[in-house]
Amino acid sequence: MVRSLEEISKGKTVIVLSKEAADLWDKYKKQVPFIINGHEIEKRSVITGRNGIKKADLIGYISTVEGFTANLPVVNNVIDENEDVEAVETKKMQELEQIIDVDSQGIDYSKSEKEKVAIANRLYYSTEANDGFTGLREYQLELCKKNIYFLPAFAILVARTRVIIEDYANSKSREGKAHPGSIQKLRLEIINHLEEIVKSENDKFPSVNDRNLIDTFKDFDDAVRGAFADIGAEKHKLNMERAEAREEDVRAIKAYPFVNWAVEIVNNLPEKDISQIRKLSAKWKEVAIAVMLLTGRRQSEVMSSGIFTYVDESTVIFEGQLKRHDDKLVAPEKIPVLGKAAKGVIDAIEWLEFYGKRTLPKVREVESIQKAAKESHNRCSRYIAETMDTLAVYCSITNGKEWIVEENGKKVNKFKGHLTRQIYAQVCDGLFHDKHETKKRAYISRILLENRAAALSYDRDIEIVDIEELKELCGSLYDN
């Protein structure tokens, strides 16, 4: 358990605190060094002796160790007192990785996620004495002590956060300079981890004039967003340049064979037979792609978060939208199904669940839905991508371009999973019965569950040229 600084010091003399700090130093000195005035302590006697170590330094070290140990994996709590602590933690990590390998069905939990959690912990547990800047925890304690809203240390923490995240992003880049989009993505992920720590700690602090730790975090989050404003502007500029380049590389395609293939897949599913699970379930990749194409949903929405309810042959109600920048669930929405294959889509979702290919959230809450979707993405993406490569034959190109191109000396297939969503949007656009552009844009925005600017960006890579043939297969779509 991580205690507040006041809890650590309450009723304790310097002698008692020095022994507690020394005991922790014995166990964790390799992971959490004890640094005073820029020098690392190398002997226990320096901590317990009469060397003038300040009480605040002892409390700060104990707090830092508690913050570190609170995030260690707990797999086996039986520890031999004579066993080296570093060896014990290594053993725990190996045991944890073995459990993940068995239970996750192929999910890869990379160490980068642990590194992001470590950065979030640093931003929360850092102390002026040890780290040279005040983390959110110590900052909130100071607000409580002085009963005020703001301290200058806040600005220092925001600036320090920018440096820490940007340095980490650059260290992960082969060029030594991270793409603005990568920096912004890391910022969001690290701040999300920090928010989880804050939520678990909120009730440990008294409110300051009706403001609590979560309120302080929200101010911090807003300030950090502002600190990264120039990164966001650069990201937008690069995205616009990339979009313009993509417009020059648009492929005119015939999509009827691909849509018809998808209709045939969902309407002719193999009989469910658990005794033939290995043989029959191998078809799951084609089934997943077919549902993605016919409903315009993202891969993880089909394979994890989505709930599909039958309405009629051309319509389902969809719930489980992903890729939102807020923490609110999106209301269920009626969406069209191409090829009048709504019943086949419902059957396909049940078929995927029967063979255990969908990773379902434990509860219908944002955090659980996002976690399950991420696991599903790690589990399925490679296989979906490999299968998409084989399906390019169903979309012939009519303007002289190719699906396979050379990039940086390598052959790359441009027929990727995200194109199913673009094809769906363009087909729905072409089949929409009302030619009024404002109504059409509103309709496409609604069925894609995107804002209008995002919805209208789904024509960057392809242009469908056989809408008339698709009308015969799909009929007209109405906004009702």
Based on CA inertia axes, which overall geometry fits? elongated
Strand content: 5-15%
What is the CATH H-level superfamily of the largest domain? Telomere resolvase
What structural category characterises the helix and strand content?
Answer: mainly alpha
> What is the first-to-last residue Cα distance?
55 Å
Q: List how many beta strands DSSP finds.
A: 10
CATH class of the largest domain, named Mainly Alpha
Q: Mind explaining what this structure looks like?
A:
This protein has helices at residues 5-9, 14-28, 44-48, 55-69, 85-103, 111-125, 128-131, 136-146, 153-171, 180-201, 213-227, 229-247, 256-267, 277-280, 284-295, 299-305, 342-354, 366-391, 419-431, 437-448, 452-455, 467-474, and strands at residues 35-36, 39-40, 251-254, 307-312, 315-319, 333-336, 396-397, 404-407, 410-413, 462-464. The protein folds into 2 domains: 110-248, no CATH class; 252-474, hpI Integrase, Chain A (Orthogonal Bundle). It is mainly alpha-helical. The chain is 57% helix and 8% strand. Strand 4 (307-312) and strand 5 form a beta hairpin. The protein has 22 helices and 10 strands.
Give short descriptive properties of this protein.
single chain, 480 residues, mainly alpha, hpI Integrase, Chain A, 3-stranded mixed sheet, 3-stranded antiparallel sheet, 22 helices, 10 strands, elongated
What's the SSE blueprint?
Layout: H1 5-9, H2 14-28, E1 35-36, E2 39-40, H3 44-48, H4 55-69, H5 85-103, H6 111-125, H7 128-131, H8 136-146, H9 153-171, H10 180-201, H11 213-227, H12 229-247, E3 251-254, H13 256-267, H14 277-280, H15 284-295, H16 299-305, E4 307-312, E5 315-319, E6 333-336, H17 342-354, H18 366-391, E7 396-397, E8 404-407, E9 410-413, H19 419-431, H20 437-448, H21 452-455, E10 462-464, H22 467-474
Parallel strand pairs: 3-10
Antiparallel strand pairs: 1-2, 3-7, 4-5, 5-6, 8-9
Helix pairs in contact: 2-4, 6-10, 9-10, 9-11, 10-11, 10-12, 13-15, 13-17, 15-17, 15-18, 15-19, 16-18
